[in-house]
Amino acid sequence: MSCPFNEEQLTQLKAFVELCKATPQILHHPKLVFFKDYLASLGVSIPTPTFGSQSSAPSGDSNTSNINAEEKMVSSEEESEPESDVELDMEGVIEPDTLDNEQNKFDSTKEPTDEERDQSDEKRSEAMRAFSEQQFDEAIKLYTEAIQLNPQSALLFAKRGQVYLKLNKPNACIRDCTRALELNCDSAAAYKFRGRAYRLLGKFEEASHDLCESLKIDYDDQANEWLSEVKPNAEKLRQHKLSVHRKKEEKEHRAKLRRARKAAEARANAAKAQAGAGMGARPPPAGFDPQNFSNLLFDPEIMSAFQDPELAAAFQDVSANPANFVKYQNNPKVAAVIEKLQAKLGKGGAGGFPGGFPGGFPDFGGAAPGSGAPKPPTDDDVGLD
């Protein structure tokens, strides 16, 4: 079978294959989809497209395609990596209880008389005896009667919360201890029992907080033991939250960079179109590669500089009219960016700034072409003798 291609076509084909080897990302170009599909039908593994500030693009529209593809790829990665659950030691955690509102009826605004205070103290003494005899239901009944006589006593609420703990009713305990802390924010007993109730519900961070507060107010061996029990899970949850927060910040930072890249590309395209219209569609100066310049704009260091509103406004002004450059010749910020651009591309070299900044920016010390601004004097201008 004879070869259907002539020597020139074979040479071009070889060059294309070499290009594919050097930059396999080119296979993802929309115009080469037919070739990529053919390779896939042969079982060839097509490399995942990568994007970066140094990668070359086959056409003027490829940067937009690259950015859109990158956004889809990042979004896919974020969706495929859901936040994993924290592995906690749930031993000892119990089912939550249902609150009994009948035992929580009291007048919170009531100011007890001296006689009612004495009666409340008698009920409290009876409740404490019932508790010591492990008659917990009777103790709840007596503490409730004492609270109704004196609803301003933080101790009564904390003590009844302790009894609820013995009955494995953590929600009822939390309700009473919270009320006790509203009446007395320095109630170590209320913090202690509420912390233990949170632990029974598997709320380890809340438990750690309350037990620490209890120990700050009044050290207690049992509270310290309970705190040691919840600390490992509480620390795991704290680290997990920090990780979630960090990933959220990283995601927002990537989104900000993508928006900055899109904005930079839009400005570059607008400046290119405006410069083309102003130059009468003249070809770019010899040695200037628009694609390399466009890629340079995506350089992280350059993009970071363009986040400065003053710089962005100055470059937008000069992009609209290169003659405006003379206004910024003595601006150190603009000077620093120009020097940085020239250093990265090589001033006056291939792919650099031939005769000045692309689109008409002059070298520092010169005036913008066509601006009418006087040029620096030369020996001829001075007329040396």
Structure in words:
Pfam families: HipN, STI1-HOP_DP, TPR_11, TPR_8. It comes from Diatraea saccharalis (sugarcane borer). This is STI1 domain-containing protein. Residues 102-112 have a biased composition (Basic and acidic residues). This protein has 385 residues and is mostly helical. The chain is 61% helix and 0% strand. It starts with 6 loop residues before the first helix and ends with a helix.
Tag the structure with descriptive keywords:
single chain; 385 residues; mainly alpha; Serine Threonine Protein Phosphatase 5, Tetratricopeptide repeat; 61% helix; 0% strand; elongated
How many angstroms does the end-to-end distance come to? 81 Å
- How much helix, percentage-wise, in residues? 55-70%
Q: Provide the CATH top-level class of the domain at 101-219.
A: Mainly Alpha
Strand-pairing-aware structural class:
mainly alpha
Q: Say what the CATH topology of the domain at 101-219 is.
A: Serine Threonine Protein Phosphatase 5, Tetratricopeptide repeat
Give me the strand/helix succession.
Answer: HHHHHHHHHHHHHHH
CATH superfamily of the domain at 101-219: Tetratricopeptide repeat domain
Q: Please give the CATH architecture of the domain at 101-219.
A: Alpha Horseshoe
Quaternary arrangement of the chains shown?
single chain
Mean pLDDT: 77
Radius of gyration: 38 Å
Number of helices: 15
Low-pLDDT stretches? 51-60, 347-385
Query: What's the count of strands?
Result: 0
General shape = elongated
**Beta-strand content bin:** under 5%
Largest sheet: none
Biased composition (Gly residues): 354-369
Pfam family, one: TPR_8
GO molecular function: Hsp70 protein binding; protein dimerization activity
Family: Belongs to the FAM10 family.
